[in-house]
Amino acid sequence: MPDMSLFPKQDKPLPPSPIHAKQLVICSGTSDWPSKIDGDTTSLAGIIGASKRTLFRPQYPVMVVNCDLPATTSSKSPNSASAYLFPDNLYFDDIPLDKVDKFFENYVRPSSTEAVQSEDIPNPRPASPLILICGHASRDVRCGVIAPLLVEEFTKVLTEKGLYFDAETNPTGIRVSVSSHVGGHAFAGNVIYHPSDSSSAALPASVWYGKVFPHHVQGIVEETILNGRVVQPLLRGYGPRKW
């Protein structure tokens, strides 16, 4: 069990999750991030951070986070990156770092009502379902403490139910990953479940939970993942919807 003195009981309702139109989840292969992930200007997060004024639209907020899943770039080159895009439920193996503006133009910005295929950006593939757990220890110790415990418990429960991702035996299974800051450290553990388009228990959007502890995991898997029902006491909100 975690040191519960780090997680004082909150009598107030959980605050709503930040509103965003899309979420870009970058596969960084590590969870040892600096306090701000855009500090490395050679990374995808850093390039996006340095170009916010040209890439983003104020009325169309995009949440950019890192996760600890490894990149799957074809050449393992530092000149490209891998990322998920929600609610589009797409996975990009190779995003050229010198074509980030084209990537945003084709897939991320509101003008991208329909993805425009481009030779500059290799075609994406459908994303597998993903559970993100905020574990950004350099931003807040609480996330660093609770995330490994939640990863362990989600992995255990999903494996027992035959839902956990395995490249050979269950390639459409659910991946579990630690993410960088998503907001609301005081309400750790923060857990976001992104179902796939083909998930058997259809949900209207990604589901965002707060104050999640290992003893909640079994219920989240059974209620939300298997049956499409929201666990209301843990609900912070929903992720971006695919209109």
UniProtKB/TrEMBL annotation:
Superkingdom of origin organism: Eukaryota
InterPro entries: Aim32/Apd1-like, Thioredoxin-like_sf
CDD domains hit by this protein: TRX_Fd_Sucrase
Signal peptide: none
Family: Belongs to the AIM32 family.
Protein's recorded name: Altered inheritance of mitochondria protein 32
Organism the protein comes from: Sugiyamaella lignohabitans
Species lineage: Eukaryota, Fungi, Dikarya, Ascomycota, Saccharomycotina
Chain's gene name: APD1
